Amino acid sequence: MFEATCHCGAVKIQASAEPAWLNECNCSVCRRLGTLWTYYHPSEVTFLEGAGKTVAYLWGDRGLEFHHCPTCGCTTHWEPVRKEGAERMAVNARLMDPAKIAGIRVRHFDGAESFRYLD
Ligand SMILES: [Zn+2]
């Protein structure tokens, strides 16, 4: 099990699988948030703490909700606005134990320009 916990502990997310890879994106929001994303099917993710308590930020075409903890401000995850049939959500791996994700490949996504992976 892989757990992502915000700084104050109000939000605790459990993922059922090891991240296949981690994504550092340079788009206007990800570069500011400093996130390292790992992607899951929503069925693979469980909120042990803080379900429904996080705050969503929407921008651009408003298709995704970027969530953060209302107390400590850590970015926890994103999920599609449209929950029905959603195939993907992302958990911020910066909230995972660094030792557990140390060997996992980090990819760089050019979300700012080409919308392609740079590797
Ligand atoms: Zn918190």
TrEMBL record:
Keywords recorded for this protein, A-Z: Metal-binding, Zinc
Cell division found in the keyword field: no
Any Pfam family hit: GFA
Domain CENP-V/GFA, chain residue ranges per copy: 2-110
Listed PANTHER family: CENP-V_GFA DOMAIN-CONTAINING PROTEIN, CENTROMERE PROTEIN V
Family the entry assigns: Belongs to the Gfa family.
Protein name: GFA family protein
Annotated organism of origin: Chelativorans salis
